[in-house]
Design brief:
The structure is a homodimer. Chain A is of the alpha+beta class and about 110 residues long. In chain A, about 55% of the residues lie in helices and about 10% in strands. Chain A has one domain: Orthogonal Bundle (Arc Repressor Mutant, subunit A). At the A-B interface, helix 1, helix 2 and helix 6 of A face helix 1, helix 2 and helix 6 of B. Chain B binds a DNA duplex (30 and 30 nucleotides) through helix 4.
DNA sequence: CATATAGGTATCCTCCTTGATACTAGGTAT
DNA sequence: ATACCTAGTATCAAGGAGGATACCTATATG
């Protein structure tokens, strides 16, 4: 029996692929409290990131159905990003991940 | 004020980096029920993966402190991998991620 | 006229991860 | 004598993600 690509079949393989982008988790975290504009996201990013990269990351999260892009027809442009329904449900993972991350940071300090 | 690398400071940035390997999440999932040998892991992987790649993934998880490598001095060699204490605490994230992953798979089916 | 604004795309380059292959150890089975 | 077993490492090639830069829109402002 051949081994198959389990994307869309195994929840862990599927999650792994969704989260593979360098900023996916942090973007979901930034969007969890409501709509944010493109340049606001830029300023909220923890490290330097080009708008090219941010644009690509947002586009792929949108294509995967986790976030929604809403464009206002005005000059200068205004675009808001916010979580979709399935994106919103990711909050439990974020919560657990935030708690684990803090414990891991403690672990790193003790090790040092 | 310059933006900095928040690894070791922000729980989400830190988690993202830990989980960046292509198989990290699935490996933590496979190891959650106890020690597993190298070749057993090979056979449990959902897709084809070379032993070179598996070896590297395990090594980096070990260096990050999430798993422990135990080598038995015997011929042929026997090596077991299992979760460290901080690796074990990741189970809550896995649980939430598993549930979300299943909902996301449902979402994909409805969309199709 | 030049410039700033917000939110992008197009293109190229580079680096990192992964994959493929060959090689290793020492003992046991055929 | 040869092959097989486990659990790797060393080396090289390929692919993809990310970064840098230039360019685009249409309007308002100096």
């Amino acid at each position: 029996m051949d081994k198959k690509d389990l994307f869309g079949l195994c929840p862990f393989v599927t999650s792994q692929k969704i989260l593979s982008g360098k900023w996916s988790i942090y973007l979901l975290y930034l969007l969890k409290d409501g709509p944010v504009r493109f340049n606001e996201l830029m300023r909220m990013m923890p490290e330097e990131i080009t708008h090219t990269t941010l644009s690509r990351q947002l586009k792929s999260l949108e294509e995967e159905g986790l976030i929604v892009r809403k464009e206002y027809s005005q000059i200068p442009p205004k675009v808001e990003y916010f979580l979709s329904e399935i994106g919103n449900k990711f909050d439990k993972v974020l919560l657990a991940m935030g708690e684990w991350g803090e414990e891991y940071i403690e672990f790193l300090k003790e090790k040092a």
